[in-house]
Amino acid sequence: MRIGIIGTENTHVDHIVGHLNIHEAGGDARVVALSGGHSRRNDMLATTAGVERIVDEPTALLGLVDAVIVADRYGAHHRDLAIPFLTEGLPVFVDKPLACTVEDARAMTDTALAHDAPLTSSSALRWIPDADALVARSVRAGRPHAVVMSGPADPDSEYGGIFFYGIHPVDLALRLAPGEISDVRTDTTDTTVTASFTAGGTRVVVNFVKPNDRDQIPFHGMTFTQDTMVQQTLTLGAQYCVPGLEAFLEMVRTGRPPIGYGDLLRPIEVLESVAAALRSPAADLP
After folding, report:
1. What does pLDDT average to over the chain?
2. Which of the residues 79, 129, 221, 244 has an alpha carbon 20 to 30 A from that of 67?
3. Residue 6, phi then psi, degrees to nearest 5
4. Which DSSP category does 19 fall into?
């Protein structure tokens, strides 16, 4: 399985090439090409991980690879980067976030469906062992009446504002709360942005806590039923990108996306509403 990567500045790329090329832990999957031309970063990756080709433009990967990972940090670029490969029927993994608008996200899922090209995207947080543990413990208690997720996110991030890190707690919250999104409300303080909404029959609250120069809070989740509460601090281990990468590799081999396309759109819907509220002159900003 020949994989090409578009956008290599993201540190997730180090996890990917390490797992596939250096440790050869992904079966027959190898990263064989990088886009973006020769640079100190790309040349280092090629040398240390044995990547065969460096191409200037993303579309130059066509014909060289069997599947593509879009790892560009800017979610606003993802639609333009992914669609040429989806149009050719190639499997595509878009690293978080899928997009910065529902329109862009839907354009990708529509193209994937039209060309029978498997597409996936997710927060790495969605797949880590602590997330699985929170989901399993919550399921045993019954469908939650309420979900509360908290984590660091900078609404002023240069990489798409609240989307860049905000996708992490929203994606996991929605894994726990299936159903249609409604009534998204955004409240702010000096240090926190809070989104509250309904997903199906579950009330969801997501706290985005602004990091500072010294530290940031850990990711944390809680679920509530009528008579139980389950909580879990979510720790990102050294190989935190690997479970999501393995889900992508399984998709390439089987043609079956691990997440339904409707569920790819839901977190973008929430974050688009939050971003719009933060841009509003009437927003309760400090």
Report:
1. 95
2. 129
3. -110, 120
4. I
